[in-house]
Amino acid sequence: xxxxxxxxxxxxxxxxxxxxxxxxxxxxxxxxxxxxxxxxxxxxxxxxxxxxxxxxxxxxxxxxxxxxxxxxxxxxxxxxxxxxxxxxxxxxxxxxxxxxxxxxxxxxxxxxxxxxxxxxxxxxxxx
Length: 127
Fold this sequence. Notes:
- This protein folds into two domains: 3-50, no CATH class; 54-118, CATH 2.40.50.140.
- Helix content is 34%, strand content 25%.
- The radius of gyration is 28 Å and the shape is rod-shaped.
- It has helices spanning 3-15, 21-50; strands at 62-67, 75-79, 82-88, 103-110, 113-118.
């Protein structure tokens, strides 16, 4: 912490009626504690930024096709117990060829639609 700011804080505290070496010692302890807790606060903040919420949590999730061909080239999928309209990421693939029960993986969100790829992983759990 910049020494100037500590002095400024001490001057303001003296003007407010706090005086004496005892208070300056407490202020030093507070500053040391804040400096010591800074890495902990950074770790907590960093973890909370990595947590996905809302529809962003669906990116990377595996689901299944529940309707092979809906209007406008859409398919209906179930991901994490929710039903969504979805489009295939690769527009060359024909969505009508997907069988009901085919596994898909969410790669992006486009408005109210999921963008998905056919999933052929070994993971046996569909969310």
